[in-house]
Amino acid sequence: MQLLFIHSDYIEYEAKEKTKVAEEIETSSERVEEVLVVFIAVEREDERNVNYVVDKAAEETISIFNKVGAERIVLYPYAHLSSELASPDKSVEILRALHDKLHAQGVEVKRAPFGWYKSFTLRCKGHPLSELSRKIKVLEGAEVKEVETESKALEAEEKAESHFFIMDGGGNLIAADDFEFGAEHENLKQFFVYESEKRRAVDRVPPHVELMKRLEIADYEPSSDPGNLRFYPKGELIKTLLEDYVRSTVAEYGAAEVETPIMYSVKHPALKDYIERFPARQYSMIGKGNKPDLFLRFAACFGQFLMSKDMSISYKNMPVKMFELAPSFRKEKRGELVGLRRLRKFTMPDMHTLCRDMEEALKEFKMQYELGMRVLDDIGFSPDEYEVAIRFTKDFYDANKTFIEDLVRIAGKPVLIELWDQRFFYFVLKFEFNFVDALGKASALSTVQIDVENAERYDIKYVDASGKEKRPIILHCSPSGAIERCMYALLEKAYLEKERGILPMFPLWLSPTQVRLIPIAERHLEYIESILPALSGLRVDVDDREETVSKKIRDAGREWIPYVAVIGDKEVEKKTLSVTIRSESHGNTKKGQKQEMDVLELKTRVEGEIRGKPFRRLPLSYKLSERVKFVGG
RNA sequence: GCCUUGGUAGCAUAGUGGUAAUGCGCCACCUUGGUAAGGUGGAGAUCGCGGGUUCAAGUCCCGCCCAAGGCUCCA
To answer: How far in angstroms lies nucleotide B5's C1' from the CA of residue A335?
Structure first.
């Protein structure tokens, strides 16, 4: 049976003239609104298992009916969908049965007359699900199989079939549906559910969106394109620190930093493929003749591949690693954008490694896998705060079982496995570390892919020991994932911790203010000024506003400031500080954890905690009284 | 692109047909303080835009614009 579904504003049809197989009818014309129109061709093979076909067709129809939210259904016999039609008698029987079945489920359903020449007009709604087709197949014997096709042009490329498993530390591959997640692996379960269902309807704004505004990190910019955000000084500081960190970590790893253009010609043959695959997702520059002639890059791949093509590379130089902190652009559909999680303009740390062969690629892959773990740990995510996904083709797995098992062992916990029966896009193996947020949505942070296709496409080659030109294997790696996405994950993590009674905060090295000094009265300001030089090299500010001490303490808490020191007569006299340490305080008691220490002790402690991490100075006046508010209140 | 919700002072919101309200922030004054919001006063709004209904519209109707969330998607 062939089915074509069109979610329509309305359909009008009129039976004009009988064919010789026409059924008798009462009304010859009809108009139906807010309707899911189902064009149906009943096929010869359907006669073999009428009940099955009717059940299956009803099930599909109801599912689509509910998904698109139509109000009623019209079944419209449409012989032209198939060249192997069933007999008219059987067709009518099946159509009637389908009608009755749907009717029995409480759906308002009409059937257009069978065997008439009919005129019709309908208006298709035009949303992504408004046009769908289904084929219900009856195979030999009782065996049955469904084939699903989508009519959208973008999906013309056939997707490889994929299967989800969980692999445990012992290398056992368990179908994900059968895995006992238990309380221990609740997060992994959420991740799997998100991955397999790809949806999770929630009706509230993600917590990080409110936080990014309130903490003066970032905000929407109504005058730009959606997904292009503004970053306030504190947000820009955090972003820059993360960038500094990734930059130096990757440099240490041995990658050479480069810069490549952000826009490219649509005419380049290797780039054309990409653009044609995702035409609606490019920011294009319209050139002569109203046609796009340049587009903005969605990652640093092109730039680095085009550079690699012109390099002369000997096997002795390999692996060759190139890195770029790449501002990237993807014109995601309006509804896909969410706060800092999914943007149209974002900063993608993008490293490519050219390897001699698969053996070297695997060695590098494992190192970069460990690099990703280290990077996430430094940014503030321990391994139990993200979930590992490893995805590969069946062929790759058969040839590299122990390699995969090794990766799982390094993760130290069960990981989600996706197995493709054939190669999907350009890679044979990839991993991601995924963060699951407060609403149960998963997003990839670190990721590495083994690319076996682009060296050919971009004509990248190296010379091997025997003097012959060869194609390298290319690793794509983003050790942290998009910088903005790291910020999103940090905010969501803080929110989740708050829910559990932990005071939310950023890692110390990313906190805009690391130490806040609060004078009890104006006369203590002079003393504070005198100790400031001793705290240089830290981000220290002073709440010199004319407010009560209580108010200042509260405001410091609302800003998630890690160290808050109150200074009054006692401290001036004893030359000490009364420091409230946020990380040692609890959210459920109103009392902060206070500690007496002198200036040097405080400085030593903070410096110890941020050692090895990048530092930037406070981007705002150290006096709170001089600061403007970026977000209104 | 589609669906849903929303657009009222710098920000967050209340306001179901009759004088635009509250909190935060801002300004001024009082208070010079000891660990999670001190007090008083003041300024600040063509209620997203355009049309319609009505004696009267922030409120009801129509059209448009903008935003967020969801669907879909994520190279």
So the answer is: 14
